[in-house]
Each structure stands twice: as structure tokens, then as C-alpha cells.
């Protein structure tokens, strides 16, 4: 296939139960590994279609909220199962890899989780959404907001779609989804299948490049809540828009996750494999990827050597090519930013190791390829340490004692995740409780270690609120307090 080939999927919007073309035409979505290929002709909604989608959701909101919780759970799970089956039949994973860049095995895993995510929220719902009753007759109930605007990221768009839509719908809201404009095809397809299994207007999609569609959606007067996964800059812009109407938001934003390897741990191949895998998932483009590694200073060289040996086995290439372990990053800007961070780190005296292979012929292909790097000894103020790389780069820093390691790990404006690695359970727990992060993994790191029954959310600039768990369900509700009824004054009992 040549770099100029056009292999297209024509996507549509879903509004009020109907598949519709974008009134503002289409735009091309390109393959990050083969930028000359157009993967999707993506629909571009007009402002009028955004309004129609929100009004359709608003019209459906009351009837959906009045549907029993058990019936909502049943319908949402059935919709998710239908989406899983359809996605597998249509090989949606291949489309996701071509528009996103990730390796095919990751896309297959992501698509396969659709039903499981919905089922988890369904199982949690009866307890999470039940009224709280107190002695004397008082109670607290949870009520849906109404119309939820859900804005999705490019990195795990299908997974995040379901992690927002399932709890929002089960809680009684209706939803308008805005996919990532650079990676909308798989999201639009999954949402289409789910919407077809639900009453018209309960689930809708709008799409388009730039910021206009998102601003129109978030700023719509009938949107009652906003849920977004993305970067801190986008989160601020969205909440500034929503805040003008005092609309609440659930924000899962960026991270700069640190891992601390305790002094009792010796470097070995198995540990190096887990640490590097946590850093390289989706080419490092995961909010909870391992982005800073702190090891005892006396073991810095040994850990670096073990990580470099593991990095030497990586193969960077197109996500659909057999044997590829690291796909391209999503955009040219992301690749340029990663390379600039490596240049700066080397200028500051860090040692940059890039032993992995780039497939033959890709260097001049125009693809957004970044060969994984292990960066030993960068200073704390280097961009590769201070900023979220969102690329397959792993800085390794030495520490003198655990107090220094904890202080360095906490010295970040982010606080999404962190991890502690030790054979001493008591020490692991002690360090974990000192880390400023919403999730602290122990002897693991990243999505594979998440328990969907537990809340996931960030501290500081990593977000507001939590997804997953009972808290993730209740995030899509507001409380109504009903104090004990008192006798009407002047009326005999």
C-alpha cells in the first residue's frame, strides 16, 4: 500500500435515533503511521445539529429518568453487549488502530471491554444509587442531572466512551457524546450500535474538528453536566465555558505518574519488563502511564542497564504490522515535542538510550514514530521530568533516601497516579499513604492494575471527581434531601 492510498470509512452522526451526515460536510482523518492515508471521512456537525442533539437528549431525559433502575441497567448492558458483538464482527479494532496508531492487540483489548465495563457499573448500581434512610424518617435520594455532555480523548476513546456513557445512563441521564476529532470513527460506530438499542434521544453523537463543536455543546443551555477526559489545558477551557452557567463537571485530566522502587528491591529482568511496559503502553500516551521512575542512587546504573536491555527488544512500527510492539504517537506535534524533550535532557547531562528497532523504511515515511527512550539522570527541572511526556520516554532518577524520593514524586502539579515497588508490605503501605495521587498502585502500575470497583480520579491539576466505582456512578447524580415529615401545623393527629 502506498503512502498516497485512500482507504476510507464514511462515518455518520447519531441524533435522536437516526444516522445523519454532518451538515458541515466531512473532513479527513489520517493514519498516524501512514499520514498519506485517509482512514475515515468524518462527519462535521453544524451548530444546528449540536442544538438538535442536545434538544433530543433533553426531550428523552424525563422518560429515561422515570424508567426503573433495573430496566435502565438491563437496557444499557444489552446495548453494550450489542456493541461488543458488532465491533468484533466488523473488525472495529483494525479501524481503531488505523486512526489512532496503537498496536492492534491494544485495540482488540479495548474493543473487547465494552460489555464488561457496562456490566461492572450495572452490578454496582443497586447499592450505589439506593436511598439513604435515617431513623425518624429522613432520607437522601440521588437524582440524575439531565443531559450530560461527554468529551472523549484520542488515546483509549472506546473504553472512555463506555466508562462515561454507561454510568451516566444507568444513573438516569441522557448523553451527547463528542468523540476526539482526530480519532472519531470507532467511537461513532460503537455509539451508533448502543444508541440503536436504546430509546431515541437517550444517546447522541456530534463531531467536528477545532473547538467550535465542543464549545457549542458544553455551552448549550440544556446541558446540565459535563464529563471530560483530556489534558489540563482542555479541561480548563471546558470548565470556563461550563462555569459561566455554573454547570458541574467531572474532569479526568493529565498525569505525570511517579514510581518509587524501594531500597530492598534489586533490579532484574522481570521488574524491568513490568516498569517499561507501564511506560510504553499506547506509546506512552496514557494518562496513568509510568512517566517518572525513582530508584536508589546506588542502583541507578543497574536499573538503567536492565531497562535498556528490555527496551532493546521493542520494535517501533505500524500498529497493524506483525511484530510491532510500539506504534506511532498520534500527531506530528507529539513526536516533535518528544524529540525536543530528549534533546534538552541530553543537553542537561542526562544519558539517552534508544536501543530499540525502527522498522526498515519508516524513517522517511512521514509517520509519527518515536523510538522508545530510557533517559538516565535528567535533572528535576528538565521538561522530560516536569511535564507529561505522552510519548514512549522514561526518565530514571536516583534518590538518596525514601524521604527524598517521596518529596520528588510529590513535586508535581499533577496527582493522578503513582506506584510503590517493594517486597516489604508495611513499607509499601507507608509510602503509598504519603504520595499525593488519587490512585497509588503497589507493585504494579497502570490500566492493567485498575480495579473498576474502586474510584479513579486525580488530585491537583489531574482532575476533579472520580470515575469508576460507586463514586463514579454517583458522580452523575445530585442529592435530594428529604427531612422527616412533620405534622401540618394546626391539624390534629
Number of helices: 16
CATH topology of the largest domain: Aldehyde Dehydrogenase, Chain A, domain 1
- Strands of the largest sheet, in order across it? 16-18-19-14-13-21-22
CA-to-CA gap between the ends? 85 Å
Radius of gyration: 24 Å
Q: Using the 3D structure, state the CATH architecture of the largest domain.
A: 3-Layer(aba) Sandwich
| Count of domain modules | 2
Give helix % range: 25-40%
Mean pLDDT: 96
Shape: globular
Task: Tell me about this structure.
- The structure is a single chain.
- This protein folds into two domains: 6-253 and 462-480, Aldehyde Dehydrogenase, Chain A, domain 1 (3-Layer(aba) Sandwich); 257-449, Aldehyde Dehydrogenase, Chain A, domain 2.
- A seven-stranded mixed sheet has the order 16-18-19-14-13-21-22, sandwiched between helices. It has a six-stranded mixed sheet with strand order 10-9-8-11-12-24, with helices on both faces.
- Residues 1-5 have low confidence and may be disordered.
- It is of the alpha/beta class and 493 residues long.
Write a brief structural summary.
By secondary structure, the protein is α/β, with parallel strands linked by helices. It starts with 5 loop residues before the first strand and ends in an 11-residue tail after the last strand.
Amino acid at each position: 500500500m502506498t503512502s498516497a492510498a485512500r482507504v476510507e470509512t464514511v462515518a455518520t452522526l447519531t441524533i435522536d435515533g437516526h444516522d445523519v451526515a454532518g451538515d458541515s460536510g466531512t473532513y479527513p482523518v489520517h493514519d498516524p503511521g501512514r499520514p498519506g492515508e485517509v482512514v475515515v471521512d468524518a462527519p462535521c456537525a453544524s451548530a444546528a445539529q449540536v442544538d438538535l442533539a442536545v434538544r433530543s437528549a433533553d426531550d428523552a431525559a424525563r422518560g429515561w429518568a422515570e424508567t426503573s433502575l433495573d430496566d435502565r441497567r438491563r437496557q444499557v448492558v444489552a446495548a453494550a453487549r450489542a456493541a461488543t458483538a458488532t465491533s468484533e464482527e466488523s473488525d472495529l479494532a483494525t479501524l481503531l488502530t488505523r486512526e489512532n496508531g496503537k498496536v492492534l492487540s491494544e485495540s482488540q483489548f479495548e474493543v473487547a471491554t465494552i460489555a464488561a465495563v457496562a456490566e461492572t457499573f450495572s452490578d454496582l448500581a443497586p447499592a450505589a444509587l439506593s436511598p439513604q434512610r435515617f431513623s425518624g424518617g429522613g432520607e437522601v435520594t440521588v437524582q440524575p442531572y439531565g443531559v450530560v455532555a461527554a468529551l472523549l480523548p484520542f488515546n483509549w476513546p472506546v473504553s472512555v466512551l463506555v466508562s462515561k456513557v454507561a454510568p451516566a445512563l444507568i444513573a438516569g441521564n441522557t448523553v451527547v457524546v463528542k468523540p476526539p476529532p482526530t480519532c472519531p470513527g470507532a467511537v461513532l460506530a460503537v455509539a451508533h450500535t448502543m444508541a440503536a438499542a436504546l430509546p431515541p434521544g437517550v444517546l447522541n453523537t456530534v463531531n467536528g474538528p477545532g473547538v467550535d463543536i465542543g464549545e457549542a455543546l458544553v455551552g448549550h443551555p440544556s446541558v446540565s453536566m459535563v464529563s471530560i477526559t483530556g489534558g489540563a489545558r482542555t479541561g480548563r477551557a471546558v470548565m470556563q465555558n461550563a462555569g459561566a452557567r455554573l454547570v458541574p463537571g467531572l474532569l479526568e485530566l493529565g498525569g505525570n505518574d511517579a514510581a518509587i522502587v524501594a531500597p530492598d528491591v534489586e533490579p532484574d529482568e522481570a521488574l524491568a519488563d513490568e516498569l517499561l511496559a507501564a511506560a510504553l503502553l499506547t506509546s506512552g500516551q496514557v494518562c496513568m502511564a509510568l512517566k517518572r521512575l525513582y530508584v536508589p542512587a546506588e542502583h541507578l546504573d543497574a536499573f538503567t542497564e536492565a531497562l535498556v536491555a528490555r527496551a532493546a527488544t521493542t520494535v517501533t512500527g505500524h500498529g497493524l504490522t506483525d511484530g510491532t510492539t510500539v506504534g506511532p504517537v498520534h500527531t506530528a506535534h507529539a513526536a516533535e515535542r518528544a524529540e525536543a524533550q530528549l534533546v534538552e535532557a541530553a543537553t542537561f547531562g542526562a544519558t539517552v538510550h534508544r536501543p530499540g528497532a525502527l522498522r526498515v523504511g519508516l524513517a522517511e515515511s512521514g509517520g509519527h514514530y518515536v523510538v522508545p527512550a530510557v533517559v538516565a539522570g535528567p535533572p528535576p527541572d528538565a521538561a522530560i521530568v516536569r511535564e507529561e511526556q505522552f510519548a514512549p520516554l522514561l526518565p530514571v532518577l536516583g534518590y538518596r533516601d525514601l524521604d527524598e524520593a517521596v518529596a520528588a514524586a510529590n513535586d508535581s502539579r499533577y496527582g493522578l497516579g503513582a506506584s510503590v515497588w517493594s517486597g516489604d508490605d508495611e513499607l509499601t503501605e507507608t509510602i503509598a499513604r504519603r504520595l499525593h495521587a488519587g490512585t497509588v498502585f503497589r507493585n504494579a502500575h497502570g490500566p492493567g492494575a485498575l480495579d473498576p470497583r474502586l474510584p479513579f480520579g486525580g488530585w491537583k491539576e489531574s482532575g476533579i471527581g472520580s470515575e469508576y466505582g460507586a463514586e463514579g456512578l454517583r458522580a452523575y447524580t445530585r442529592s435530594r434531601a428529604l427531612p422527616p415529615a412533620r405534622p401540618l401545623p394546626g391539624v390534629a393527629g
